[in-house]
Structure formats: structure tokens, C-alpha cells
Design brief:
The model has no long low-confidence stretch (mean pLDDT 86). The protein is elongated, with a radius of gyration of 38 Å. The chain contains eleven helices and twelve strands. The strands form three sheets. Strands 2, 5, 6, 7, 8, 9, 10 and 11 form an eight-stranded mixed β-sheet that branches. The protein is an alpha+beta fold. The protein has two domains: 84 residues; 243 residues, Bira Bifunctional Protein, Domain 2 (BirA Bifunctional Protein, domain 2), CATH 3.30.930.10. It is an enzyme of class 6 (ligase). Belongs to the class-II aminoacyl-tRNA synthetase family. Phe-tRNA synthetase alpha subunit type 1 subfamily.
């Protein structure tokens, strides 16, 4: 036993790596190792001999295992020291810029628009995406024969045969949020309502699901002049230009009277949109003074209060500002497209810091 001990203690002490150490473990205390074979011989001894040899063999086995564990830890510590010497870094050097995550253009533009209108005192209002037919159409003065209520344009939820309850739809605009907010808060009121909307359409500039943002302001002395100022300030801030010219064209929307579509002066020189200059005009949104019937649906007295409303497509203005040619790409989940058109996750848009840094 003394010869075995001296042999393996010396071999373990001189082992240069963990592979050699493992070979020594197998040779010494493995199933067919020398010490293991010695312990099998105990069965051939007399009781008196086993009482002497047994404890010595167990002590030898424990000593060899302890020496193996100590050497293994020593080799690991030496490897770590070598790695630390080789893989050093100067922590006083400036950090390397690394992009953490990517913000989708729709999310970015929603935050930009929200920041602009928040600066003008508009709060954010939200509502359900599955709406009753009354909130989506009737409360907004949209008559029953209006084309927007046809199943070829609007997604209606399934109803069992004989179910006479009012139908529900995937909201076709965020205007129902205006009704819900008027009913909940009353007047005066100043809110914007961003969110997803749904219509049965699909081509380069239309998708079945897209994003809108609508604004509503109600007070006792609000006019089209206030609407014009708000939209001018928004366009200048959003497109980050010093001056802009808007053109209001008479139009018709069931929920506003009078109604106007709004164009901005621009140019497409070299295929690039430049806002505030040139001889072209680009339609960007619809607007008008809130119809008295809509105020009544929101439980607001139209003889005492009046207001304006406007709505625009978030996806559309994102395409215009950032030169994105196809609306369908917004919803393709293509990481290459997102890395190209996306925004750094930590760059929060602010008016004083810049919307689109």
C-alpha cells in the first residue's frame, strides 16, 4: 500500500493537465484500478486480516481522491490565471457603441406624434379594437346605407343564425374612441387616439390592418382657425421644417361639418419628398368641425360646446417622412427591413432633443 500511495501521489503531483489527471484516477480508483482491485482481495482474507487491511485501503482511497480533487482545482485555478492574463481589457476606455434592439417605424412615428400633441396639451385616449356597430358607425352620424358599412369594406364578427343583438365589427377607424372619451370625461376635452384599425383592402398603399391617429378638441370657443394652427404646428414639428403651407379643400365626412381634406405644399425633386417648398400638393389627413349629432352621441350639448377633429394614417406619414415605398413591408416581419428602417430603442423622440435622431 505504501508503494501504491507513493506512486500515485507523485504522478498526481506531476500531472500537467486534466486529461492526464483523469487517466490517473481511472488507473488508481476506477472500477479496474489498482486500489479497487486490492479492495476486492479483502474477500479472500480472514476476518483478522480484513480488520487490519480494510481501514488502510479505505484511507488510501480517500487520500488518493483528495489528492486528485486538489490537483484538479489547482489546474483550474492556473488555467483561469492564464486566461485573465491573456484576456485583459482597459476598463477606462470609452464603451463601444452598440445598438440595443430596434424600434419599428410605426412605433417610432406614434411616439413622435404623441410627443408633438402632448406639447399642445393633448392627452392620449384608447379604446377597444372590437367595437359595437353603434360606436363605430351610428354614434358618428354614419347612415345605414353608407358604403363603409358594407361587408365588402368592414370586418363583422360572426353571429349565430337568429342572433338579433347589434353586430360588432373590427373598428374601421379610431373615431369610436372619441365617443367613448366624450361620454367618460365630458367637455372641455383635448385628446388624441392612436391605434390599430381594420378594413378589407390590400395593395401597395393599403393593408387589412393599419394604424391611425385621430385628434379631438372640444371647448366653448373653438373654430376652424384653431384647427388650422394645430395642424400647421404639427406638420412643421413632424417633418422638422421651419415653415409649411397647408391647403384646406372642402370635403364631406359624416362626423364633421364643415369638413376639409388637408394638403401640404411639397416637391418630389429627385424622388425625395421635401415639405414646405415646390409646386406640388400632397394630401395627408382629413379634418373638420365636430358634427352636432356626434356631440350629442357623446352626451355633450352642441348648443353649449363645439370642437374640431382630425385623423391621419400613421403608416402613411411614416412612409412619407422616412421614404418607405411599400406599406405591406410594415407587416412582413423581415428583420433585414427592420434593421434598415428601424430606430434605436433608447432614442426617445422629444421636441427639444429631436424627433428622429
Amino acid at each position: 500500500m505504501d508503494d501504491l500511495r507513493d506512486k500515485y501521489i507523485n504522478l498526481i503531483a506531476n500531472a500537467a493537465d486534466e486529461a492526464t489527471l483523469e487517466d490517473l484516477r481511472v488507473q488508481a480508483v476506477g472500477k479496474k484500478g489498482e486500489i479497487s482491485l486490492q479492495m476486492r482481495e479483502l474477500g479472500k482474507m480472514s476476518a483478522e486480516e480484513r480488520q487490519v487491511a480494510g481501514p488502510k485501503l479505505n484511507a488510501l482511497k480517500d487520500e488518493i481522491n483528495s489528492a486528485l480533487a486538489a490537483k484538479k482545482q489547482g489546474l483550474a485555478d492556473a488555467a483561469l490565471d492564464e486566461r485573465l492574463r491573456a484576456e485583459w481589457m482597459d476598463v477606462t476606455l470609452p464603451a463601444r457603441h452598440r445598438r440595443v434592439g430596434t424600434i419599428h417605424p410605426v412605433s417610432q412615428v406614434t411616439e413622435e406624434v404623441t410627443a408633438i400633441f402632448a406639447d399642445m396639451g393633448f392627452a392620449v385616449a384608447e379604446g377597444p379594437q372590437v367595437e359595437s356597430d353603434w360606436f363605430n358607425f351610428d354614434a358618428l352620424n354614419i347612415p345605414g346605407h353608407h358604403p363603409a358599412r358594407a361587408e365588402m369594406d368592414t370586418f363583422y364578427t360572426h353571429r349565430a343564425p337568429g342572433d338579433d343583438r347589434p353586430p360588432h365589427v373590427l373598428r374601421t377607424h379610431t373615431s369610436p374612441v372619441q365617443i367613448r372619451t366624450m361620454q367618460a370625461q365630458g367637455a372641455p376635452l383635448r385628446v388624441i387616439a392612436p391605434g390599430r384599425v381594420y378594413r378589407a383592402d390590400y395593395d401597395q398603399t393599403h393593408t387589412p390592418m393599419f394604424h391611425q391617429i385621430e385628434g379631438l378638441a372640444i371647448d366653448k370657443d373653438i373654430s376652424m382657425a384653431n384647427l388650422k394652427w394645430v395642424l400647421e404646428e404639427f406638420v412643421k414639428a413632424f417633418f422638422e421644417v421651419d415653415d409649411v403651407e397647408l391647403r384646406f379643400r372642402a370635403s364631406h365626412f359624416p362626423f364633421t361639418e364643415p369638413s376639409a381634406e388637408v394638403d401640404i405644399r411639397c416637391s418630389w425633386e429627385g424622388g425625395t419628398l421635401k415639405v414646405g417648398e415646390g409646386d406640388d400638393w400632397l394630401e395627408i389627413l382629413g379634418s373638420g368641425m365636430v358634427h352636432p349629432k356626434v356631440l350629442e352621441a357623446g352626451n355633450i350639448d352642441p348648443n353649449e360646446w363645439q370642437g374640431f377633429a382630425f385623423g391621419m394614417g400613421i403608416d402613411r406619414i411614416a412612409m412619407l417622412k422616412y421614404g418607405i415605398p411599400d406599406l405591406r413591408a410594415f407587416f412582413d416581419s423581415d428583420l433585414r427591413w427592420l434593421r434598415h428602417y428601424g430606430f434605436a430603442s433608447l432614442d426617445v423622440p422629444t421636441l427639444h432633443g429631436g424627433l428622429s435622431r
